[in-house]
What does this fold into?
Amino acid sequence: MGDIPRSHPRYNSLIGRKLLTEAAADGLLAASALIAHGRGEAFDYLLGEQTCASARRAISEAAKRLINAENPVISLNGNAVALAADDLIRCAAVVGCPVEINIYYRTPERMAALLKRLGERKEFVAQGKAPEGWSNQHEKRLGNWRTAVESVEILGAEPDGLIPGLEGPRANCCKNGILGADVVLVPLEDGDRCEALVALGKQLLVIDLNPMSRTAKTATVTIVDELMRCSPLLLKDILDGTSSQTEKWENDANLASCIAVMLDSLPQPN
Amino acid sequence: MGDIPRSHPRYNSLIGRKLLTEAAADGLLAASALIAHGRGEAFDYLLGEQTCASARRAISEAAKRLINAENPVISLNGNAVALAADDLIRCAAVVGCPVEINIYYRTPERMAALLKRLGERKEFVAQGKAPEGWSNQHEKRLGNWRTAVESVEILGAEPDGLIPGLEGPRANCCKNGILGADVVLVPLEDGDRCEALVALGKQLLVIDLNPMSRTAKTATVTIVDELMRCSPLLLKDILDGTSSQTEKWENDANLASCIAVMLDSLPQPN
It folds into this structure.
């Protein structure tokens, strides 16, 4: 695919495709992961490949809920690791929560490849500089940037819990991760698992480009946006975040506004 | 993915995904082919995963144009071979035209894998029974079913022509195939190549689930439908076909009706 200049109007989309095909070649993804990415591309096309105002509000809401959670966790699958590992590790560092690799088509090879990759990205992020917005306040609570990142636990290698209502390996999870969490941020979640986790009384914060998907409709807060594009915004909001109480959130209404943006992008009949 | 029962409401979509991931494992596809398939899935979702009336009209129009062509050809890429090789070979047999493998990311390995697969499918189709609608009329013109299928030339192994206006390997094609054709049926074509072929004065009959794509908007006749679903319908129309002259075809109007179907499928704002 060669080098893609930053100035390209579809830079984000082309980079995403590059990262995904590379991750597939590296064994990080299930066979259907690229198809799922393509479905997302089509919905992003209808969004004009930009973060709409409703998505922006959902990002802020998700940030608030992560900050106010008792036991938050960020759940990652192969596509999420391929597209946004660095920013999601940064989010976990600032929230002070673990990340858990939790994949639908679980094989030992893919789990090992993802754990290795995520460990490498964590080290990279720890050695890099703190993101803009990182303050003395954060240092006081979490130590310096390097310490904060190195404190992010990477879970998933040894699942010791089962999500009730799911069968087979896809039910596996960690007690001190997803199973024990009150708030789960999970980009690109499967519908079955989203429903099962919500049924456990957890708050599910999801990132899904299809506002009509079962996941989008079941989640507590649905960010209808592209993962590479919204992750830095989520990080910014987490860094800026106050401990203010969460206002009433109407997820259905937010989804409806995202659908309205897509409707507007389709050529109207005469 | 296991066995998918015929009765499953999303049978076609799940089988398509299975065929594509298997074809990828067999080396028939470029890295981005699965992503392209996923984009199609999203648009098909908006179509309700069924052939809309406008697509049905476009299928009939394409059949008429193939029948009335001087030198028709059916151009196939990896996804088309994976999803609908058998029916498209049947179409070529009844039209009495060659098929040409013409892929965007051309490598010797993929060309060899596709030629081998298509040869196998041709043999399978030749040994099978003639499709419903195959008549004495067809026998008189083409010989018996087996002969008709075995007469379908598979081109693409040794391209001896270049499509003007395209650079690199993607310009390669055959003089007695795409380059010499007046009518080209090409499922899932790239926008650049569609434009270059239309600029040569050819009629392009395309199958594309995104009615807003450059290919959809540039082609002479655009079938906005899923390839596995529309191929048997195209075959039926070719078998039924008379030599009646083509009526005035308004492709833009047909695309607009397909977009209207998608608009109707999106939940309307209150």
In short: The mean pLDDT of chain B is 92.
